[in-house]
Write a structure and sequence with these properties.
about 0% strand, 6 helices, mainly alpha, single chain, about 130 residues
Length: about 130
């Protein structure tokens, strides 16, 4: 019974994704998009990618410092939860990704979601 439920959820997820992709892609001028992609400066793109990664890494380091009274956690685990939260911020409204980040870090780091959320609020204040 559980396998059927998972398949049903996956099918519903794919259908919803296809519907939203249709609405997102229906007004695109494909020739203009391809011309824009051809004109991308690879060095500028790679350097912006590097500095974006570096900024997120520094955020994970800052978060590690804020979590120090609770425990010593790896940057890798913090970085993963941080990226999940920022991805969710790009999808959901009202910065809901911060709540998802707190939940994710709570599960990953084996700490209270409330404790994690408190450090996220502190981080935002600073």
């Amino acid at each position: 019974m559980k396998l059927k439920n998972k398949k049903f959820q996956m099918i519903i997820g794919i259908l919803i994704s296809m519907i939203f992709l249709y609405f997102v892609l229906k007004g695109i001028n494909w020739n203009l998009l391809l011309d824009s992609i051809k004109n991308v400066s690879i060095p500028v793109y790679l350097s912006s990618l590097f500095f974006t990664f570096l900024a997120f890494w520094f955020r994970a380091v800052r978060w590690k410092i804020l979590l120090r009274p609770v425990g010593d956690y790896s940057i890798k685990d913090l970085f993963g939860s941080l990226m999940i939260g920022f991805m969710a911020n790009n999808i959901f409204p009202a910065r809901a990704g911060e709540i998802i980040r707190a939940y994710s870090s709570g599960k990953t780091l084996k700490i209270s979601t409330v404790t994690s959320f408190a450090t996220i609020i502190l981080e935002r204040i600073f």
